Automatic annotation (TrEMBL):
One of its GO terms (molecular function) is methyltransferase activity. This is SAM-dependent methyltransferase. It comes from the Bacteria. Transmembrane segments: none annotated. Pfam families: Methyltransf_28 (PF02636). It comes from Undibacterium griseum. GO terms for biological process: methylation. Keywords: Methyltransferase, Transferase.
Amino acid sequence: MQKLSLPIPAPEALAASQALQQQIAADIRRHQGWIPFSRYMELALYTPQTGYYSGGAAKLGKDGDFTTAPEMSPLFGASLATLAGTLFAQTLPQVMEFGAGTGKLARDFLTECQFSGITVERYFIVELSGELRARQEELLRNFPQVVWLQEMPAAFSGLVLGNEVLDAMPVDLLIKTEQGWAELGVTLAAQQADATEPVLAWQERACEASRAAQIPQAEALPSGYVTEIHTVASGFMRSLGAMLQAGYADSGKGSAAILIDYGFPAAEYYHPQRSSGTLMCHYRHHAHPDPFYLPGLQDITAHVDFTAMAQAALESGLSLLSYTSQAGFLLESGITDLLSRSAPEQVMQYLPQANALQKLVSPAEMGELFKVLMVGTGMTLPERLLRHDRCHRL
């Protein structure tokens, strides 16, 4: 593999990554020298203290590794709040957010609710990272309705938000071989098996043909084709369905989950030309394909197979409400009306927001790459939200 030319980490960050590499190597040895890639990704991202999302380094914004929509503009969270104001007539007036990051989306959402007189009795944040929770608590200290949870509750009725949550869930990697589908997992390079500095390497293992069940026309794909399957995210969708179904049974009120992420329907995701999959790493605003580079210091993501997510939701008893582009969703949620509150003559205030809106909705930026999947129970969406619906593509 070509040597990566990326920024050098600080000594303490490098030491943390090396400690995590030792933990990963120990886990590989405990499992007879091989672990699925999903296990590696879980360790790299979520190991306490040293995993990417569990450590103390800044992840988001100009000083981090990537920028999300809420970090770009308060209009994003305000648009979701505007939509919530119409949906709360069918649900309990409460929100649950997964993957809250810095808390910026929650702050913008609740700020708009205050401004517009939208009642939110509880805003739950499901957060596993103590470091991120501390940052969220500081940012949201003026919003007493915010409650933190460490796990998904058994029942909930209201609005569920997940912005760039599914792409951070561990994926498994499959490779098409001459003998059929095999799983790409992680091992230790043979010559380094007992060395102080473990070297991670790929290793194939035969797997059941059913592992490729979510891949359309799997047998027609060429030998050497590498891709991801989304077992963890599909499980999350089924758990989400069980929670919302239980909430409906308890309260008689509906629920809607809004999941915003980059990805494709299955027919596009598993296109023959997408032969290397979608796995990507982000380190200090550099994107590259090597997941073994400095584990714990870089993000590892894969695009979302929205067909698989919708299928898992349907299997759990939820209804498919909408699937559309981020641009269509935000425009129909009133983002341009929110921008119009700022006078164009106030250039210093207006221009940054107008530029951010352009990035959020432009097909050349985030508007088309990012999709919005809405699933729920006991809900009917406003007609305007269905103008750009693409459920037929799933």
